[in-house]
Amino acid sequence: MTDMGFDDSACANHDIWLDLVPSTGSPDTVIQIHREVLDLMARHYPDAHAGQGGVCLNREQVEEFADLLQANVDTDVYFHRIYFFRRLLEYGRNNLQWTVHLPSVPYLTRRPKNRYLPGQFHVAEANTIAEAIVQDLRNPAPPTSAARYGQILLSAMLYGGMLHVSNLRALVTNLPSACETAGHNLVVPLKTPDSADRHNLWFADPVTQALIQRWWRDHQSDHPFVGEIRHPDQAIKTYLRHIGIGSTLSVADLRQQCHHRLALRIPPVLVDYGRGLVDSVSLPQATWQRLHTGLALNRQASATDSDGTSMPAIPVTVISGHPSDLEKSRQIGYWRALQRKIAKRAKSGTHAAFRAEIESYLHQHAGKLLPSLDYILRWGIDLVTVTKKHELIYYPGREKGQLRAASALSYMADVAIYLITSAVDEDLVTMDAEELHDLYADAIALCPPSPKAHPHDLIAQRCAEALQRFHGFLQFGFGAPPVDFHDLVSSHNGRINVDANVISYTEYEQLQQVLFPGQTGDTRQKMRSLIAMLAFRCGLRRGECLRLRLCDFHPGSCPELLVRNSRYGRTKSSSSVRRLPLHALLSDDQLQNLKDWVDYRASVVGSALPEALMFDVPDPIGVEKALMTPIRMALHQVTGDTTLRFHHLRHSFATWTLLRLMIPDLPQQRTPFAQHDDFELDACQNLRKQLLHNRSAGRQLLYELARLVGHESPETTLKHYVHLLDWILGQSLAAEHCEPQVSAAAISSLTELSWTQIYYQENSESGSGSESGKFRLSQYVSRSNRLPHPYVYSLRKPLLAPLAGQVSVQLIDYVQMYQVIPKVLAALAANKPVDGVANSLNLSMETFHQWHRVANWIRTLKTDVNKPRHLNVATASKGISVFPGPCKTKTEKAMEKKVFFHGCKLVRAEKDNLMEFLLYFLRNYHISHKAIRYDSDVSLKKAVETLRSLGIKREELIVSVDYPEANAFDAAKNNRALDNYLGNSATVVQGKSNPGTIRNKRFDMKIIDPDDSRADPKNGTYYANYGFRSAIYLLAILLLTDQDLVP
């Protein structure tokens, strides 16, 4: 190996450069490349090469040297050169007091060998079978159900990219749920028993779509085939025998050949997605409806559309004190110091000593602690303080009256650093539920990844569970609003839930119209607009937006935004420190708006303060309420989707950026959500060129996307933030080079079009007939009988009225009502005074007596045969002092709180629907079968919608159907139709009544605990959750008046 003329003695005074050059363990070519960098540095920057201190290299000098490194070498060599050069600069900056600019390093993915070598491609038999399938398309459908299912499954493997066995099984199960979206995409939801509302989708290729449509037509016309398949492989073998192929190839080997066949046609990430090696959560049906129609959902009225009425509010305790900037930067240090002190007390001391240590620290540092740390310390005191047993019922997340000191310290340590970093100087109890949800999500996102030996993110999971307990303390002690943790805390099967949702480019532009109408908005409107832009167009997290400084914006010919640690807070991880190429991510107008704002802020704070925040508002309003809450309210107003949060703007960035980078390789067919100018081919090719520095899209694309969003691995980005891989796979397989050409006879057999219609359409579109007699099936399959489109939500036009300049956010005390109603009823039943409670809540005694009258009315309701509706016979005969009785189990309490809090939220938005359901439930519920009975599917559907708005999940809502006269096949068919009619919002099961014993069809609706071990789905046995009934009783007591009690 030669030295390229490099003189080792030049670094005699500082030999660190040679230490950075690997002597072993790397290929000789890599060592040679590193020495070439040192040689170039010796020629152009001898002071830096000599290891002298105080070297200064500005941005232009570093970029000029990077151009020298890139000249006349291929991309892989340049990667090694620029990476080593960056290491040199980092060392000089950290150890030699250099003032230097660090260049960006392109992400390359290198493998010791190619993913696919020519000798590895075994596709001969798969190609033979594919030709046989095409030839068989002209024939009638296979006579047996197994062969017919096998035809669909084999087509999905060969042409649809479905190579995972569990997905094949789910495909057969969910064929009756297949539907068509706008643009005639056939979609099959790959639902499994544990997938609940969020499940993956499969977009069918043209061949499989035609086969499913023919299956659907025959199924609707009572085609005489029945039966189930036990395993997809059996059905595939049956079909292969049907077409006369006696291959010795196993189905598993055939799937491997289909994998190789697919890898020759589409990008590797899509192949791995089809094989189940890449996870990516699909979008919910409501989001797809928004994207396809361009309209807003009409689920709930926007917060800005309310009539202004609200439930009584209670005063909240606000932590006093205003720490200085220096004190704010010391908060984690304060926590660490206290943690060391109380750790000794936790091991050997008493509860009193542990509590006294924290109280002393609070007194000593009064006025110096941020509200978040103050609340955490008070929580620790509360954990080791005895809580009376009867009060635990109203204490969310608290099960024990007193915890050991060591356990209390463990809970505090699980949340302290992350919550302090996320909350900054926000007072948690003054924030509303949505703000707290986003803040907790940011805190969980700051958790480092768990060791690879653990299958799940245990650190994040512990933090989420501890935050849920901590928030229960805020609710119980300070009246904070309830927060829905369902997408923050791990589900029962150990998986972290992914809250998949996005907004389209059109919706983003409408959002900007609401946030910043015209060009005359005030500074707060401008800040909201820019923060939303940075989240949607650059993928910034909420905390990253709020912690940006003026010095993080780097103007120039290629402007960049630096996301990094500062005294205002730290990033989630080292991977989150990144440079964002604004010239590639923003339009010229957007970039100019950001430049103008930075200049304006610099003029306000002074050019001598580059550390000043880019976005800031004066106290006491706070950044959260002044900036973040209006953005979320505008999202709800524009889309009608009240599940959208600020973090979904980041999801949108990741999803749309991946799509834009892949569009040059997709068929040029634009769906409604891709009609924006940014999805034009030229714009997408330009984005790919600027980000990837070439015109090909390999695995580098995934790593570059992960770098932009601040992830260490593309796996995280794909699994949690990209939600269109299913649709992109379907679009890729609809390309001309992936779709087989078929004969007119095959098209006629699949679509029922006549030959005349087929040739007429071909002549009208191409101007001349097909010379080879072969056609593209995709041009005709959309003309066949359409599948149903499932009902999701009604739609409306987006509301584009600007938000008020000063958005007021009132704390609505759901928790206080939840706690007070049972106490008041118990006190009135025992003839105890409640005047003090009424005065503290600013409520009248008449209100309390009204609650008591409603409760007594409910308990006395009876059926037509004079049986109590809401009390069992034993309880009615013994008597009951207080109605309703308290929940006893943990699952009942969780259900009660969830339904009650959701019901309180609906009082302003959908009060009429809620009141209608409450009265129907109270007057028609029968405790003997613990279900709500309906006689028509229309009223059932309306009730299901109300229950879903109360937070009831699909797996918790059981609809049992009894038919007067129906065989098993007809009943199953009717149940699938009802499931589609209800928008897959409930679990539809067959009732237990024997055919012929009832005169009319009836529906029994029951709310259950899905994890109840007593349930027996095979026999149709489900046990109702009392927590739901209790919540309905509490809501009725709170809302009903004397006029509602009249029969």
Automatic annotation (TrEMBL):
Domain annotation Tyr recombinase: ranges: 498-735
Keyword Lyase belongs to the record: no
A molecular function GO annotation: DNA binding
Keywords assigned: DNA recombination, DNA-binding
Family label: Belongs to the 'phage' integrase family.
PROSITE patterns: TYR_RECOMBINASE
Taxonomic placement: Bacteria, Pseudomonadati, Thermodesulfobacteriota, Desulfuromonadia, Desulfuromonadales
Pfam families: Phage_integrase
Origin species: Trichloromonas acetexigens
Superkingdom in the source lineage: Bacteria
Protein name listed in UniProt: Tyrosine-type recombinase/integrase
This protein's record includes keyword Magnesium: no
GO biological process: DNA integration; DNA recombination
Gene3D superfamilies in alphabetical order: Intergrase catalytic core
InterPro entries according to UniProt: DNA_brk_join_enz (IPR011010), Integrase-like_cat_sf (IPR013762), Integrase_catalytic (IPR002104), Tyrosine_recombinase_XerCD (IPR050090)
SUPFAM superfamilies hit by this protein: DNA breaking-rejoining enzymes
